[in-house]
């Protein structure tokens, strides 16, 4: 699943390419979008802006129309020049938004829906979302309140919950916990407010740094070698970069997502 910084960069790229331009062609294989296009044609509308909210990407068109997409595991947006060959198969295409200068193609987008302003405001995926770690402001008190509302949940699962904090995915979950020295299986109730605040701050810093970086690969360490970009994620069985202890990996939560941690740097009872 894309991390929040990936969606942030995708929204920024789409905004730079499409904002202020008139849609010359709209194409979709998704029936719910096609019905709206038949009744309220997208071609001829102006793209006003593209922005991210957590892991949601929202394209605003003139005439009170919004397209919300969510990439989940495999979705992506690409930008091409008119006539340029696509890097993915046409069978993977779900949405095409073309202007005179650029063509935006949504591949394997699993969630896509049109809204007007009222329905967008009522959408639970946006209305109930937690504080956005990539937003210009962060309500730390609200973030801690939402974490405390799940006292028995394991901290790694809480960090992934978009209704608690918006933006953190599976990679940065493991990385933030390692940097914070917190065991991923510890319950929220066992952690102090200071520790929770430290984890939120770390997560925000990681996302912000990667969202605004020129490179595309994820990086949480300060090492120059690209093979040393991450502390623990994807490194099960390898030595910890700080203490040399073998990195452990285990599936966690109802979704059985992989969690990576160092048992020495992240002791089970540390608070």
Topology:
Layout: H1 4-18, E1 25-28, H2 31-39, E2 47-53, E3 56-61, E4 65-70, E5 76-80, E6 93-98, E7 103-107, E8 111-115, H3 117-122, H4 124-127, H5 140-148, H6 155-160, H7 170-180, H8 193-211, E9 248-252, E10 257-261
Antiparallel strand pairs: 1-6, 2-3, 3-4, 4-8, 5-7, 6-7, 9-10
Helix pairs in contact: 1-8, 5-8, 7-8
In short:
By secondary structure, the protein is α+β, with helices and mostly antiparallel strands.
Decide which structural class fits the backbone.
alpha+beta
What percent of residues adopt helix (DSSP H or I)? 25-40%
How many DSSP E strands?
Answer: 10
Overall radius of gyration: 20 Å
Total of DSSP H or I helical runs spanning 4+ residues: 8
Biggest sheet, in brief?
A: 4 strands, antiparallel
Oligomeric composition of the shown chains: single chain
Give the spatial strand order of the biggest sheet: 1-6-7-5
Give unreliable regions as ranges: none
Mean pLDDT: 94
Estimate what percentage of residues fall within beta strands.
Answer: 15-25%
Overall geometry comes to: globular
- What is the string of helix and strand elements? HEHEEEEEEEHHHHHHEE
């Amino acid at each position: 699943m894309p991390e929040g910084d990936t969606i942030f960069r995708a929204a920024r790229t789409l905004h730079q390419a499409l904002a202020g331009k008139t849609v010359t062609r709209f194409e979709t294989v998704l029936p719910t979008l096609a019905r709206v296009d038949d009744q309220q044609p997208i071609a001829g509308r102006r793209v006003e802006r593209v922005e991210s909210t957590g892991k949601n990407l929202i394209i605003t068109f003139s005439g009170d129309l919004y397209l919300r997409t969510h990439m989940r595991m495999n979705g992506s947006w690409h930008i091409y020049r008119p006539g340029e060959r696509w890097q993915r198969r046409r069978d993977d295409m779900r949405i095409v938004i073309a202007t005179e200068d650029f063509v935006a193609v949504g591949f394997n987008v699993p969630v896509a829906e049109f809204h007007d302003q009222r329905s967008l405001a009522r959408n639970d995926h946006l209305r109930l979302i937690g504080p956005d770690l990539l937003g210009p402001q962060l309500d730390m008190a609200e973030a801690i309140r939402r974490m405390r509302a799940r006292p028995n949940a394991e901290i790694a699962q809480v960090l992934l919950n978009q209704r608690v904090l918006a933006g953190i995915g599976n990679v940065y979950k493991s990385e933030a916990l390692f940097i914070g020295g917190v065991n991923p299986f510890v319950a929220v109730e066992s952690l102090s407010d200071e520790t929770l605040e430290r984890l939120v701050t770390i997560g925000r810093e990681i996302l912000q740094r990667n969202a605004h970086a020129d490179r595309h690969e994820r990086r949480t360490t300060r090492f120059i070698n690209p093979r040393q970009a991450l502390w623990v994620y994807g490194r099960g069985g390898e030595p910890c970069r700080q203490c040399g202890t073998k990195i452990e990996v285990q599936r966690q939560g109802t979704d059985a997502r992989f969690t990576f941690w160092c048992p020495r740097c992240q002791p089970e009872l540390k608070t």
